[in-house]
């Protein structure tokens, strides 16, 4: 049986999962692949810790460079993370003609264009199924299954940490801070949760998916990013009153000559399947002109789910090597000469529905003043909810808008905040609901 | 640019969709593939009807044999359906060394083993993404994305007609016959709906998936099949009372040395995402030892969604041909020498939870008699619901069981039907709920 020699760089959580699968599941993988995946090297700065794996003698090394320079290695799996040494090792591996696999979404989102270019010039593959959505086969679906479709939109829950926290706030009316602490205790959030809760990790993923979907380069800087730190049980409660749940959504829409790519807390109706995706799970709904809507759902993180996605890349590459081919599928889905320059719209240009919560003094005329300002900016309201608890003499005034333009909304809200009857910064949550006018 | 020559056999609904995509979407397909898919032949007995497609001069033919015998054709797409001429043409195409694509689940379920053997011996591919779940990439997910997993179970809604009818019965309390008529009016059900409503089409699909999942040959005759024709609004109402919806599920479970493969109406809890899959959509939840649960969701039928899946096969094959390789992935996921003989359990052996509805005379002692018989067969009951409308002096007595064995259940129900206090055949619906004891 043919053997493919694999070098693993980084043996943290996901790296350990990859090693486990390569060793413990070698039989079932081999029965499908018809070849053996041989884990020849595992490089990590820590080769002392017991990872619960019986490595063969001499497999563990602290010298990652020697792994990428080993002429007998066919495939390099980069599981180090970060944008420093990981990038250097990937580039070195490409230069050495290795096929490379990574789950490093931060690196791909910020420097993927250069990395994919390097791989194309060298004629090797740089695979990254595990970079987006963990075990959900979203990269494969986009690059292979939807190949006959013009992608119209993608709407997804792409960060398990945020979805866990929002589920906690929704189901238990926890405050954000308490829900975050619980997520940290359970190992679902990092000690420094910034990348997750500020929406940055989600933005990395939608930046990658957006490039794949529409045939453009990765453009992270133009993705709008807003996290979940300001979501309160009160807004969750009002959302439910109107028939919505709040999720951190990545939204990407194709308008032909320009596209939307944004990450922010979003209200979606109960009838939308995504509103029922709870806990640490990821899910994405993709619309294509031939398929209509398809949805994928699965664990977006965690040792074994992510490792499973990495191994699917290893096997894909092994199948190519067995057929003596590489670059069977372009990394960003489109042939490089078909990658276009498509503008991502500024947030100001976005037109959508809005939920507003104003903290107003409990006195007559408030509603008229607020709605007057909104009217001046062409923002029309489809429902108002004024009942609610009084806090320090203020009451929440909640409104759902018809379609409105973000630039108008921001100006109106700034003006409303300056009204003497408004005592706190207005809250804005965007709504994604095709049923609304 | 390289050109792949394609011959299409059968230009009915899905065939027309395939032709449309090959012509209307050639630009986006070419931008991804880096080659042209040339629709050289379209064979159909009817070449007069206007299908809304501008075919090139001479593309349409009534002579399917000349298409499969054309030495310049690389890929044959079989969209004729049925098990007669379709099978002969597929075998002829294989014999001629063509790569073949089909969506013919009935043919694959009944004669796939022979067809896949013929393709293997000739060294060509026989691809079938569109045979199961329409545009949902379930075949690709199973064969490629989950390659590192031991599949533990698959639970799916695989027939859009049945799901539409059950959605109608659920949401509008329609009788089965009325819901079927509505489905026929809307074009979601055939004039003769037997294959769909009797669960046979679903069985075809789960027979194929079961082979792919566990590494065995296709074994349709041993799949248990029960349709939806006996589902009533009354049972839907009781199901809701207990927190369940009724879906026609395909259930396939891996017990190591034997497996379950069965199709029947099933109650699933509201919390299960599949219970929220409404209308003509398909969805499947797959459990693997590494990924946990993943779910796919998409249109299971219809011209363009199914055609999209067919084109994904054409592009996969075109990529192989461009790399001068074939049979990159084994048809049934496992290498042929790893395909095992695994027994499908008889229905008698199944252990699950049950919903029973007895039509009993409204008199004291009925419950004791019924539960006495159940007790004799070791079937214990976790809840009973006796209120409900009286019809002709009879009342429904509804029970939910703890885990019980099908053989015992069937014997008990036969005995209960013979009780003088029971006036109609007992209704049994199996329950799939991991939360139950």
Summed up, what is this model?
The structure is a homodimer of 437-residue chains. With 437 residues, chain A is of the alpha/beta class.
**Major beta-sheet overview of chain A:** 12 strands, mixed
User: Given the helix and strand composition of chain A, which structural class is it?
Assistant: alpha/beta
Question: How many structural units, i.e. domains of chain A?
Answer: 3
Shape of chain A: elongated
**How far apart, in Å, are the first and last alpha carbons of chain A?**
61 Å
The count of helical stretches of chain A stands at 14
Helical content of chain A, roughly?
25-40%
Named at the architecture level, the CATH assignment of the largest domain in chain A is 3-Layer(aba) Sandwich
CATH superfamily of the largest domain in chain A: NAD(P)-binding Rossmann-like Domain
Work out the radius of gyration of chain A.
Answer: 24 Å
pLDDT < 50 runs, ≥5 residues of chain A: none
CATH topology of the largest domain in chain A: Rossmann fold
CATH class value of the largest domain in chain A: Alpha Beta
- Assembly level: homodimer
Integer average pLDDT of chain A = 96
């Amino acid at each position: 049986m043919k053997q493919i020699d694999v070098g693993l760089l980084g043996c943290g959580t996901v790296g350990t999962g990859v090693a486990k699968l390569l060793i413990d599941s070698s039989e079932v993988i081999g029965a499908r692949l018809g070849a053996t995946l041989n884990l020849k090297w595992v490089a990590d700065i820590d080769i002392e810790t017991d990872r619960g794996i019986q490595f063969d003698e001499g497999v563990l090394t602290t010298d990652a460079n020697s792994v990428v320079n080993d002429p007998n290695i066919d495939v390099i799996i980069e599981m180090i993370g970060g944008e420093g040494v990981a990038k250097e090792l990937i580039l070195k591996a490409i230069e050495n003609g290795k096929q490379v696999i990574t789950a490093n979404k931060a690196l791909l989102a910020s420097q993927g264009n250069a990395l994919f270019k390097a791989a194309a010039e060298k004629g090797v593959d740089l695979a990254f199924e595990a970079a987006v959505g963990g075990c959900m086969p979203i990269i494969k679906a986009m690059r292979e299954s939807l190949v006959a479709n013009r992608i119209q939109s993608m709407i997804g829950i792409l960060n398990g940490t945020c979805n866990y926290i929002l589920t906690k706030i929704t189901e238990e009316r926890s405050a954000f801070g308490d829900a975050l602490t619980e997520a940290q205790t359970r190992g679902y959030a990092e000690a420094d949760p910034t990348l997750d809760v500020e929406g940055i990790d989600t933005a990395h993923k939608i930046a990658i998916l957006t490039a794949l979907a529409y045939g453009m380069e990765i453009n992270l800087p133009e993705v709008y990013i807003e996290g979940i730190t300001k979501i309160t049980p009160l807004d969750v409660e009002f959302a439910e009153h109107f028939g919505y749940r709040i999720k951190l959504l990545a939204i990407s829409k194709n308008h032909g000559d320009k596209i939307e790519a944004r990450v922010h807390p979003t209200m979606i109706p109960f009838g939308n399947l995504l509103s029922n995706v709870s806990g640490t799970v990821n899910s994405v709904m993709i619309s294509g002109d031939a398929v209509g809507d398809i949805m994928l759902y699965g664990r977006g993180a965690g040792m074994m789910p992510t490792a499973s996605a990495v191994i699917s890349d290893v096997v894909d590459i092994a199948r190519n090597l067995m057929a003596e081919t590489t670059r069977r599928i372009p990394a960003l889905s489109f042939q490089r000469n078909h990658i276009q320059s498509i503008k991502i719209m500024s947030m100001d240009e976005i037109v959508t529905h809005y939920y507003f919560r104003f903290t107003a003094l409990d006195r007559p005329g408030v509603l008229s003043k607020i709605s007057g300002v909104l009217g001046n900016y062409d923002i029309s309201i489809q429902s108002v909810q004024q009942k609610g608890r009084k806090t320090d003499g203020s009451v929440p005034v909640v409104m759902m808008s018809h379609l409105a333009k973000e630039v108008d909304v921001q100006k109106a809200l700034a003006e409303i905040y300056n009204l003497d009857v408004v005592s706190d910064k207005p809250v804005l949550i965007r709504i994604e609901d095709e049923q609304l006018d």
